[in-house]
Amino acid sequence: MVDRLANSEANSKRIGLVESCFGAAGQPLAIPGRVLIGEGVLTKLCRKKPKARQFFLFNDILVYGNIVIQKKKYNKQHIIPLESVTIDTVPDEGELRNGWLIKTPTKSFAVYAATATEKSEWMNHIGKCVRELLQKSGKSPTGEHAAVWVPDSEAPLCMCCHKVKFTPVSRRHHCRKCGFVVCGPCSEKRFLLPSQSSKPVRVCEHCYTVLMSGGLGPHDSISRPTSNFNNNTLSDDEDDDNSSD
């Protein structure tokens, strides 16, 4: 079915409409063989709070953006190659239900559908696209994934030292290795994690010690450590905003 739709006029019009909704700031999406499988609004668990995001599933990429005007305008376009995606279900908890993890080497996060049926359909379609892509390319599934960040609201205290209470002055930071919320003193170290950045990124004291000792999983990819902040690293604002998410 995907092959039949690839060069159809209907598919081209649908992709063109998605491009127009993102405007000039979005990247072109129409390439030979690309098919728009489905779309919908999912709740993305962001650092500050859950937020509605518009998602588009293609046969080779997953695209999402902020909703400016429903079905008409989106911004802050994100494009995720499906070859690098792994998905895992998330147990229902409180008001957060029908969720799953979208995990990639550069960024991992949780999303939630409105119903269990929508969740099942999304996961089935994403899984099928990933399997077909890997089968065609002959590649193996990605084994390395970025940590899912713990939301700020779940950490009133530093998750490393368990002593520092977060306030407007004592800011929260996220370890890029484990995703824990940690205080400034517990996250002064930086380490180069090539799958996430070309520059050293913030890690907590525990992860820094493990990384320095070579305590790595079989698929981890790391490089030169650093414990000093300099002009080649992200500023605190960039570091903590997580690309406005």
Describe the structure.
This protein has five helices and twelve strands. The strands form three sheets. Strands 4-3-2-1-7-6-5 form a seven-stranded antiparallel sheet. Strands 11-10-12 form a three-stranded antiparallel sheet, covered by helices on one side. Strands 8-9 form a two-stranded antiparallel ribbon. The chain is an alpha+beta fold and 245 residues long. Mean pLDDT is 86; it is low at 217-245.
Structural descriptors:
245 residues; alpha+beta; PH-domain like; Herpes Virus-1; 2 domains; seven-stranded antiparallel sheet; three-stranded antiparallel sheet; 5 helices; 12 strands; 25% strand; transport; zinc-finger; PH_domain; membrane
